[in-house]
């Protein structure tokens, strides 16, 4: 049941929308100086991609928890 919720259309779309907003903000905060100077290497790029994944993962986790909690209520 967990994985079916994780990959459900509603959860994936919600997480993508959140990651599309929050991810760039986090990248700007954490890597803005490097972006402005063009100091982007493979390591920094992989950190930026991971930074995009974090809000996606948090949104997915909280959505699954909310859906499972709601499903167990009478």
Could you explain how this protein is built, in words?
The protein is an all-alpha fold and 74 residues long. The protein has one domain (2-71). 86% of the residues lie in helices and 0% in strands. The protein has three helices and no strands. It starts with a helix and ends with a helix.
How do the strands and helices of this protein lay out in sequence?
Blueprint: H1 2-6, H2 9-37, H3 42-71
Helix pairs in contact: 2-3
Could you give a quick summary of the protein structure above?
This protein has helices spanning 2-6, 9-37, 42-71.
Tell me the domain tally.
Answer: 1
Give the number of DSSP strands.
0
> What is the CA-atom radius of gyration, in angstroms?
16 Å
Continuous helix count: 3
The 3D shape can be described as elongated
- Head-to-tail CA distance between termini: 18 Å
Order of helical and strand elements: HHH
Average of per-residue pLDDT values: 95
Percent helix among the residues? over 70%
Helix/strand/pairing category: mainly alpha
Q: Identify low-pLDDT runs.
A: none
Distinctive features:
0% strand; 3 helices; single chain; mainly alpha; 74 residues
